[in-house]
Design brief:
The protein is globular and about 40 Å long. By secondary structure, the chain is an alpha+beta fold. 23% of the residues are buried. It starts with a strand and ends with a helix. Strand 5 and strand 6 form a beta hairpin. It is built from two helices and seven strands, in the order ββββαβββα.
């Protein structure tokens, strides 16, 4: 049995959430949008991992605020246990500094008005999480 822990950063700017589009060369879900993030390295604290992953994938410096949600599931084949932590993070640098890694081909700031235009996989929790986060920002404005 293999266990994998991954983290994603939910970055908000002017009540919009940052999504990155997977490169078309990626084996898994090419061209789909996702939250930036990745695997937690062995021995690494998840908060350190989300900071590192966002810097690598977007060039943004962030500070984790709190875990928004998590999910735990077995792979379809049943041999891998996946745990995903979704962090609300605060940017500590300017919005103009988004620089994508070669894993991604584009990025987009998403709100309720353009959510339906985003290419999201049906089986992935991104859309549900996005809707929950965006509804919180709308409720507070």
């Amino acid at each position: 049995m293999i266990q994998k822990v991954s983290v994603s950063g939910i970055v908000e700017y002017e009540q919009k959430i940052l999504l990155v589009q997977r490169s078309l060369q990626q084996e898994f879900l090419p061209g789909y949008f996702e939250f930036p993030g990745g695997k937690v390295d062995f021995g690494e604290h998840p908060e350190e991992s989300v900071v590192r992953e966002l810097k690598e994938e977007t060039g943004l410096s962030v500070k984790p605020s709190h875990i928004f949600t998590c999910r735990s599931y077995l792979s379809k084949q049943g041999y891998q246990h996946n745990v995903e932590l979704f962090y609300i993070v605060n940017m500590t640098n300017s919005i103009s500094e988004v620089i994508l890694s070669n894993e991604h081909q584009a990025y987009m700031w998403v709100d309720k008005d353009n959510l339906e235009m985003v290419n999201l996989p049906d089986s992935d929790p991104v859309k549900k999480i996005l809707e929950e986060v965006l509804s919180l920002y709308q409720a507070s404005s």
